[in-house]
Design a protein that fits this description.
Radius of gyration: 26 Å
Helix content: 40-55%
Number of strands: 8
Structural class: mainly alpha
Length: 462
C-alpha cells in the first residue's frame, strides 16, 4: 500500500481509531492490516460477546502521528484540528528508548475526550464520498443530525443500531435547535452548559423510569413507538433503553432552560415558605409550574412526592443559599452539582443488565413482575425519606448540648424506623418473588422465625 495515494479527510470530532478504519476501507483493507503500521502492546476494549467496542480509541506518539498524516495524505495540523485525541500524549509510548518508533495505545474514548457516538453515515458520505461508519466525540446535547433528522446513538453499547429516525418527531429536532440558546443562557448565568444539561437530563431520566406508573402519561409512549418504527411490540423494554435519550430530549431542554430562569428560582423559594420553612405538599407551586413547562399539568403532585430526586436537591440548594444556611466544613453548596448516585444509567449499562438477567434466567424480570409498582415505590419512598432526615442533620451541631443531642437522636431514630420499614417491605417483596425465607432472613440479619412473624403481621395489617 502506497501511503497517501488516496486522500482521506478527517471528520470534526472523529475518533482517531475511526479515521484509521475509514483509511483501511478506502484501500479495501481490514483495519487490523493498517494498524500493523504502529507498534501496539495492548488490545482494544471488547464487548462480552468478543466484538471490539466501537468507542475503542487509539492514542499515538509523535512518530505514530506522522505515519497517520502520511497515510491520510493530509497535514498534521489538519488532523490535530479535527481529531480530539490526535495530540494527546501517553508517557508509555511517547517517552523512552522506543519513542522514535510509531506506536499506538488503545484507550476507552470516554477516558480520552468524552462521550462517543456514531456519526451520521449520510453526512459522512457527503463529506468524504463514502457512506462508511464513523465514530465521533459527541456530547449528549448534540446528538441530533439536523440535516437528516437522526438521533445518533452511543457507540459504547453492544447493539446494532447507529441512529434512530426522527422524521416523525419534529419536536426532538426543534429541541436541538433550541439548545444553543439555552447554553448561552447558562453561560450568562455563570453556569457551565454541560452542568445545566446533565442535571436536567438526570431529572428527566428519573421521570422516564417513574412514567411507567403514570396513567396520564401519553407523550413518551407515542414517541417511543415512533422511534421503534411504529410499534415497540414485544421489545418494549429494549426500546425503552435504546430510545430513552431521544424520547426525553425535548423535556430535558425545557427543564434546563426553566432551572436557569431567576423566576423559577423565585417560585422554588416561595414554595418552600421562604424564611419560614414548610413541608412540601402535593400542591407545591414549583413542581406544578415545572409540570406545566413540560406540557403535563397533572405532573406537579408526582414531582412533589419524589423527595430523593436531583430536582429536589437543586431547589434545596437554592433555598438554603437564600437562607444563608451553611453545611459542614468543606461542603460546597452548588445547585448544579449532580451526585454520582443520581446520574442516570447509560444505555450500555442497562443493556448489560438485561443481558445478565437473560443469562441468569430472568430473575430481575420476575422481581419486577412479582413485586408490584406500589411495593417498589413505597420502598424507594421510605429510603428517600430516611435520606432526607439524615441530610437535615447537617449543621445541627451548635447550641445547648441537651438540645443538640435531642435533635440528633430524634432524627436518627426516625431514620432508623424508616429504614426498618424499607427492610420489611423489601423482604416481603423478595419472599413474594420466590426467594427462600431463610435467604432473605440471612441478608436481613434477622432470625428466620422473627422475620416470618413480622411478614405475617404485615399481611394481617393489609
Amino acid at each position: 500500500m502506497a501511503a497517501g495515494v488516496l486522500r482521506t479527510v478527517p471528520l470534526a470530532g472523529e475518533l482517531t481509531a475511526s479515521l484509521i478504519s475509514r483509511v483501511a476501507a478506502r484501500y479495501s483493507l481490514e483495519a487490523s492490516s493498517v494498524l500493523h503500521l504502529w507498534t501496539c502492546r495492548n488490545s482494544p476494549a471488547r464487548h462480552d460477546g468478543g466484538g471490539v467496542r466501537a468507542d475503542a480509541e487509539v492514542v499515538l506518539n509523535g512518530a505514530g502521528r506522522g505515519v497517520l498524516a502520511e497515510l491520510c495524505g493530509v497535514k498534521r495540523e489538519v488532523l490535530a484540528h479535527a481529531l480530539p485525541a490526535f495530540t494527546m500524549d501517553d508517557p508509555k509510548i511517547s517517552t523512552g528508548r522506543e519513542a522514535g518508533v510509531a506506536q499506538a495505545r488503545w484507550r476507552a474514548a470516554a477516558a480520552v475526550a468524552g462521550e462517543a457516538a456514531f456519526g451520521c453515515r449520510l453526512c459522512t458520505a457527503r463529506r468524504t464520498g463514502q457512506a462508511l461508519r464513523a465514530v465521533r466525540y459527541l456530547p449528549r446535547w448534540q446528538r441530533v443530525c439536523l440535516r437528516h433528522g437522526r438521533w445518533l446513538l452511543d457507540a459504547d453499547a453492544d447493539q446494532p443500531l447507529e441512529h434512530l429516525d426522527l422524521r416523525l418527531l419534529p419536536e426532538v429536532v426543534a429541541a436541538q435547535r433550541r439548545w444553543p440558546g439555552v447554553a448561552r443562557r447558562a453561560v450568562g448565568a455563570g453556569v457551565e452548559p454541560e452542568q445545566a444539561f446533565m442535571l436536567a437530563h438526570a431529572v428527566v431520566a428519573r421521570w422516564w423510569e417513574q412514567a411507567l406508573y403514570w396513567e396520564q402519561e401519553e407523550i413518551w409512549p407515542r414517541r417511543l413507538h415512533q422511534l421503534a418504527g411504529g410499534n415497540a411490540g414485544s421489545r418494549l423494554e429494549w426500546w425503552r433503553i435504546v430510545g430513552r435519550d431521544a424520547a426525553i430530549f425535548p423535556e430535558v431542554v425545557v427543564v434546563a432552560r426553566a432551572l436557569l430562569e431567576p423566576a423559577m428560582a423565585e417560585v422554588a423559594w416561595q414554595a418552600s415558605g421562604g424564611m419560614q420553612p414548610r413541608a412540601r405538599g402535593a400542591d407545591d407551586a414549583f413542581c406544578h409550574r415545572l409540570g406545566e413547562r413540560v406540557g403535563r399539568t397533572w405532573l406537579g403532585p408526582e414531582l412533589a412526592a419524589d423527595h430523593g430526586s436531583p430536582l429536589n436537591d437543586w431547589s434545596g440548594a437554592i433555598v438554603r443559599a437564600r437562607r444563608h444556611e451553611t453545611g459542614p466544613p468543606g461542603w460546597r453548596e452548588d445547585p448544579w452539582r449532580l451526585k454520582r448516585e443520581q446520574q442516570p444509567a447509560t444505555m450500555a449499562g442497562q443493556l448489560r443488565v438485561v443481558a445478565a438477567e437473560a443469562q441468569s434466567g430472568g430473575s430481575g424480570t420476575r422481581w419486577r413482575a412479582t413485586a408490584s409498582a406500589e411495593q417498589r415505590f413505597r420502598i424507594t419512598q421510605l429510603v428517600d425519606e430516611a435520606r432526607e432526615q439524615l441530610m437535615e442533620l447537617r449543621g445541627v451541631h451548635s447550641g445547648a448540648t441537651a438540645e443538640v443531642a435531642r435533635t440528633l437522636l430524634e432524627h436518627l431514630s426516625h431514620s432508623a424506623a424508616l429504614i426498618d420499614q424499607a427492610l420489611v417491605h423489601t423482604a416481603a417483596a423478595a419472599v413474594s418473588a420466590g426467594v427462600a425465607l431463610e435467604d432473605v432472613a440471612q441478608w436481613s440479619r434477622l432470625p428466620a422465625q422473627e422475620l416470618a412473624e413480622v411478614l405475617a403481621a404485615g399481611e394481617g395489617e393489609d
